[in-house]
Specification:
The protein has a 7-stranded mixed β-sheet with strand order 3-2-1-4-5-7-6. It contains 7 helices and 7 strands, in the order H-H-E-H-E-H-E-E-H-E-H-E-E-H. It has 187 residues and is of the alpha/beta class. It is globular. The protein has one domain (11-186): Rossmann fold.
């Protein structure tokens, strides 16, 4: 079970989409379906829905999903991504978004869930964050270069960072935007 963290900063920061996600959102093909993994409050689900994307928001917390009830363009799914089967085996998405969540066995599923031309936008805490607070369990902190290794040979990396951030609160983070090559990209 993941360590409970309050997120990267204040409640206001948790309601606004991540600056990393906003920066790379244009890499998700227009109108394509987006999967918001461990969606929490639904900040990214709402953001992508407002951009005209149909969004599937998945979380194991029914109260969090209830907060998304009635959000235009957002479908919710209650699923324990760590204790049950991957619920999207046969589905493909134009975008997969993950923020402040890490469960390493999902890496292959997240990559496989991308349609050709689709974008993975991922951002979470990295080793070193324990110096600043939570999360401090190494199971919930990426090792150096871990996101790069998760996509190596399968996705084309557009942007990657492994760094200290001071806002919205001090932390070490890794973030990546990577694209599944389309047929045209392979030629």
């Amino acid at each position: 079970m993941p360590e409970e963290v309050a997120g990267p900063g204040s409640d206001q920061a948790l309601e606004a989409p991540s600056a990393w996600v906003v920066r790379w959102a244009e890499r998700v093909p227009a109108g394509g379906r987006v999967l918001d993994v461990a969606c929490g409050s639904g900040r990214h689900a709402r953001f992508f829905a407002a951009r005209g994307h149909p969004v599937e928001a998945v979380d194991r917390d029914p109260a969090k999903l209830a907060a998304l009830a009635g959000a235009a363009g957002v479908t919710t799914r209650l699923a324990d991504l760590e204790g049950g089967p991957w619920p999207y085996e046969a589905e493909r998405f134009a975008g997969v978004v993950v923020a402040n969540y890490l469960y390493r066995p999902l890496f292959p599923h997240l990559v496989a869930a991308l349609a050709p031309g689709g974008a993975l936008i991922y951002e979470t805490f990295a080793a070193g964050t324990e110096k600043f607070g939570r999360p401090c369990n190494p199971d919930f902190l990426l090792k150096p270069g871990e996101l790069l290794e998760a996509v190596r040979g399968r996705l084309r990396v557009i942007a990657y960072e492994d760094l200290y951030v001071s806002e919205p609160r001090p932390a070490m983070v890794q973030r990546i935007c990577a694209i599944r090559p389309s047929g045209a990209d392979r030629a």
